[in-house]
Every structure is written in structure tokens, then in C-alpha cells.
Specification:
Blueprint (H helix, E strand, L loop, with lengths): L1 H17 L5 H8 L19 E2 L5 E2 L2 H11 L6 E5 L5 H9 L2 E6 L2 H13 L5 E5 L12 E10 L4 H5 L1 E11 L6 E9 L2 E10 L13
Parallel strand pairs: 3-4, 3-6, 4-5, 6-7
Antiparallel strand pairs: 1-2, 7-8, 8-9
Helix pairs in contact: 2-4, 3-4
Length: 213
């Protein structure tokens, strides 16, 4: 659709000039058709707004999704853990960038739909699991990159223990009832370098796996 091409071009221009995104991530954004991931009837899938998803969830704007992916600095050899699959759009970007992605979602409905979308994009290097993700996923650890689509008052120890040496983790840190900061945690041996990136509003991760949806 011509409108989608214009929206994509505007997004690429903005993230390149304002967020300094370049290289392989820009190629991934161009390669992944965002319309496949947004609800039917959306006029501009690349617009500056969130979109509703089934199960009472939402997906971030295209720019926010790209900024989160950019913060991770994923390289081709990296193994990635994602908490909160949602529509699968960020999952698809990460799968284009890294060697393998393990993505956790508490709603089977969302996980199954995202799996189908990634298959339509010819992406097969992703493991989809129905889990709440509040303690990460130790079974496949350690990870080179971790992203959490939810907020914490402070980073749980379980995630720290699942990070490889040199790993990065991106999550929203702050009270769940207000504005948080997206923070990049960079593990360097026994030390952590914390870099606040941009404000965001995300809900704390919900407890348990959804039994009905």
C-alpha cells in the first residue's frame, strides 16, 4: 500500500535523524511488514500511537518498538530472551538481528498468532513459550540480550543470573502506576552499567499463565 510505504519512509527518516538508528536494524524495519502485526483497519501502522491487541493488551508505536530494539544492540551471534511477545513485531525485528530468540507470552492466543505472523515472514529462529516471564527463563540461559515489555520497581535478581558476560538487558524501571524509564543494563563482569534511555508507561508483568485466552 502506498500509504504504508510513506509511513515507513517517515519512520525511517525520524529514527535515523532523532534516534540515530542505522545499519542492520534499519534493514530489518524495512523487511518486516508492520501491517501484518497491527489490527485490521489501521490507517497508518507506522503512526505515533499504540494499538489494541486481543486479551486486553496493547502494542507500542513503531518508533517505540524500533527504539527498544535499537537499545539492545543485537549482533548476529546473539541469543535473545524476550518477555512479552504481544503482536510479535519486536520479536520479528530481533529474529532478523540475532541467531535465536526465546519469547515468552502468558496468553496462548497472542503467542499462537505471533508465531503464525513470523512464519509468514519466513522467520524460523524463534522459540515461542507460554509463560508469565516474571523470573525470565532459566532453562535456556544464559542470554546475550534480554528485553522485558513490562515494568519493574527494580531489576529482579533472576534476570541478572541469566545474563551472559557482556550481556545487555532493556526494561522499564519505575513505579507501575506512573511513568518509568527504559533502562539498558550492561553486564561487564561483576559490574553493571546502567543507561537511562527514554520515558515510557508500561504495566508490571502479570502473574501466571492465562488459562483461558
Amino acid at each position: 500500500m502506498s500509504g504504508d510505504r510513506e509511513g515507513l519512509a517517515a519512520l525511517l527518516m525520524r529514527v535515523r535523524s532523532e534516534d540515530f538508528v542505522a545499519g542492520r536494524l534499519m534493514e530489518a524495519v524495512e523487511a518486516i511488514p508492520r501491517r501484518l502485526f497491527v489490527p485490521d483497519g489501521v490507517a497508518d501502522p507506522y503512526g505515533e500511537h499504540t494499538f489494541p491487541l486481543p486479551c486486553g493488551q496493547t502494542m507500542p508505536s513503531a518508533r517505540t518498538a524500533v527504539r527498544i530494539a535499537a537499545a539492545l544492540r543485537v549482533q548476529p551471534e546473539h541469543r535473545v530472551l524476550e518477555i512479552g511477545t504481544g503482536s510479535g513485531y519486536v520479536t520479528a525485528l530481533l529474529a532478523r538481528l540475532g541467531v535465536h530468540v526465546v519469547t515468552l507470552e502468558r496468553y496462548r492466543t497472542l503467542s499462537s498468532a505471533a508465531n503464525e505472523r513470523l512464519r509468514a515472514c519466513s522467520l524460523s529462529n524463534v522459540t515461542f513459550l507460554q509463560e508469565d516471564g516474571r523470573a525470565g527463563y532459566a532453562e535456556a540461559a544464559p542470554y546475550d540480550r534480554i528485553v522485558v515489555h513490562g515494568s519493574f520497581d527494580e531489576l529482579p535478581k533472576a534476570f541478572v543470573e541469566q545474563m551472559a558476560s557482556g550481556a545487555m538487558l532493556v526494561a522499564a524501571i519505575g513505579a507501575g502506576d506512573g511513568v518509568q524509564q527504559i533502562v539498558r543494563h550492561h553486564r561487564q563482569g561483576s559490574r553493571f552499567e546502567l543507561t537511562p534511555l527514554f520515558p515510557i508507561r508500561l504495566q508490571p508483568l502479570e502473574i501466571g499463565k492465562a488459562s483461558l485466552l
